[in-house]
């Protein structure tokens, strides 16, 4: 054991509701200045995990430490106000009868001048200094959100816990406020756990993502790793649509219309699913029935005919029916690419973008 502690550590958090484990052996650790996003589908236990970290929900088992000091464990349960955590929830309700300044100053101790200086500093930082004497009902949703952020950060919490803090904002406001929030949290050096069910938000905000499913963390790592090295099909599919090619393993290989795929560790005769994201399929033109030559990187090309193509702004989505078995595959192409229905094209699967998983047994 080293003496250096992470800012926030949780080990083996466990909580049941109505006999069902809603948070099942969750462990996390976050350093100062780091942002961890708890990502997962609705009901997977994200908020319950966050509430236990905050101290407003009690785990049945598990330990929580802040800077190495146990705040939750078999013999201790420090209340929320003793944990040096800032909280920001979806319904972040400001105090309606208090001015912006008094809202931000709410959790501050000490002299009037010192408080006022901190309030000013934070309101400047969130570009709301001109609203210091306004009341919440005089502010827009986005402005209220920024006041709530300033209020949560005012007492310089060691840890900031945020539960879908941007979900009440419309899309255009959201991007700006997210980036501003991120910058401020980084500046303050707070350790952050942010809950979201949107993969794009997690990828935009997080240094690390913890992907949750059914009360467990199924994968944890940098956004790049979760996107490019998913642990299973569901983890892959959480971040984008995926194409699935099915095959059977013989001698460590799976033969498909796209050539052979290595399937190490999969038993002979077992069924596998090869997963590739639509943006990782490569397209090439059909030249009198001929496609491009096979390569080790791209494998064997397979021909499909366009079912439909749609323009999505930055990119185009083209859906194919494959000649080899009539299955449908989707490809995303940057820019405008709108071939007519029926156009034959060749598809290639970049080997380094494919993931081979055991086929899911349908029950
Ligand atoms: N106080 C409670 N009493 C009973 N069941 C609860 C309680 N709180 C949460 N649950 C249940 O625990 C499960 C996990 O809830 P939780 O709020 O942690 O999910 P979540 O991942 O935050 O979902 P969402 O994305 O919808 O907010 C849900 O099935 C929920 O119904
Ligand atoms: Mg929730």
From TrEMBL:
Domain of life, per lineage: Bacteria
> Single GO molecular-function term?
ATP binding
* Keyword Aminoacyl-tRNA synthetase carried by entry: no
Locate the ABC transporter domain: which residues? 8-239
Identify the keywords attached in UniProt to this record, alphabetized. ATP-binding, Cell membrane, Ion transport, Iron, Iron transport, Membrane, Nucleotide-binding, Transport
- On whether Transcription is a keyword of this UniProt record, the answer is no
Q: Which Gene3D superfamilies match?
A: P-loop containing nucleotide triphosphate hydrolases (3.40.50.300)
Q: Which SUPFAM superfamilies match?
A: MOP-like, P-loop containing nucleoside triphosphate hydrolases
Alphabetical list of PANTHER family matching this protein: SPERMIDINE/PUTRESCINE IMPORT ATP-BINDING PROTEIN POTA, SPERMIDINE_PUTRESCINE IMPORT ATP-BINDING PROTEIN POTA
Protein name in the entry: ABC transporter ATP-binding protein
Protein species of origin = Meridianimarinicoccus marinus
